[in-house]
C-alpha cells in the first residue's frame, strides 16, 4: 500500500495543485526547511506528547472485530506518576472551570425560560444544551473523564508499521471511502483508490471535477490522510528523546504560528459554502456529519496503536475544520478574557498540532524517498 501511494502521490508530483493557489515545490521548501524541524521539536514537549484517549470504546458499526495480537500493535499507557503534574492538574482545572461556567450559563438560560420547570424538563433542556454545544463538532471525541481513558506518551508509542493488514484493515478504509465520501453520479463504486489499478484510480480523480469544490476538498482530505498514514508506515522512523524548557517551548510555538501566517499561498476557504444559504447550510451539515462518522469508525480499528494514531489524527483534522468553519465566532472573540462561544480544549490543541506534525513529516519523508530514488538511478 505505502509504496503504491508514494509512487502515485509523491515522487513524480510537481507544479500547481488542483483547487489551490500553491505549488508542490513551494510547499516542499516551506515545510522541509522552516516548519518541519521546529514542529518536531515542539511535539517533543510534555504539553504535546501526552494525549488522553479511550482505546476501549466499542465499535459502533459491527461486532466482529479481530483484535491484533501482535506485540507491535499494543499501546503502553502511562502510569499516573509518569504524567507531569502540570498536565494532569491543567486538565482538571480546565474541566472544573468549564463545568462551573457551563452550570452558570445553564442556570441563566433555564431561569430566563421558566423558573417553574419540572426537574425532568430541566434535565431535558440540559441535554438539548449539550446537543447544541456539539452541533459544530466534526468529531465524536472521547470522554476524558471516563475511567477507561488513559494518558499515552506519543513519543513512546510512535506511529509505525505494526503488521496490521488484511481484510480487517481493508474494511476500515472501504467503509470510509464507500459510505462516507461524496461522489459524482458518473463514478461507480469502489471509491477506495487501493481497490483498483493505478490507471483507473487516476481517471477517477479526474472525474472528481464533477463535484463541487467542497466535496472535492472532502475527498482529498480523506485520501490525503490515507496517503500520509501510508507514508509514515513506509518511512524509517527515528526518535530523538531531547527535552527543553518552557521558554523554548513558547518561542518555538510562536515562531511556528508566525511562519504559517507568512506563507504566501494560503488555501482560500472563502469559496466554501458561498452559494445559496439553504443549500450551503445543508452541504456544511453533510460535510460535518460525514467526517464525524469517520471519527467513529476509528473505534473499529483492530490494532490499538493504529487506533490511537487514527483517533488522534482524525480529531486533529476535525479541530482544523472546526476552526475553519467558526470564522464568525472567532472574529467575535474578546481581545482579553475567556471566550464562551468558541474555545479549544487541550485535547483538541494536542491533536491539532500532532496531526499537523504527521502531515509535515509525510511531506519531508517524500523528499527523502525522492532522494533515495535518485541515488538508485
TrEMBL record:
Pfam families: ERO1. Disulfide bonds join 68-73, 303-306. Its main location: endoplasmic reticulum. The keyword Endoplasmic reticulum applies. The active site is at 303 (nucleophile), 306. GO terms for biological process: protein folding in endoplasmic reticulum. FAD binds at residues 160, 162, 173, 223, 226. One of its GO terms (molecular function) is protein-disulfide reductase activity. Keywords: Disulfide bond, Electron transport, Endoplasmic reticulum, FAD, Flavoprotein, Glycoprotein, Membrane, Oxidoreductase, Redox-active center, Signal, Transport. It is a peripheral membrane protein. It is found in: Endoplasmic reticulum membrane; Golgi apparatus lumen. The keyword Ligase does not apply. One of its GO terms (cellular component) is Golgi lumen. Its cofactor is FAD. Belongs to the EROs family. Predominantly monomer. May function both as a monomer and a homodimer. Interacts with PDILT. Interacts with ERP44; the interaction results in retention of ERO1A in the endoplasmic reticulum. This is ERO1-like protein alpha.
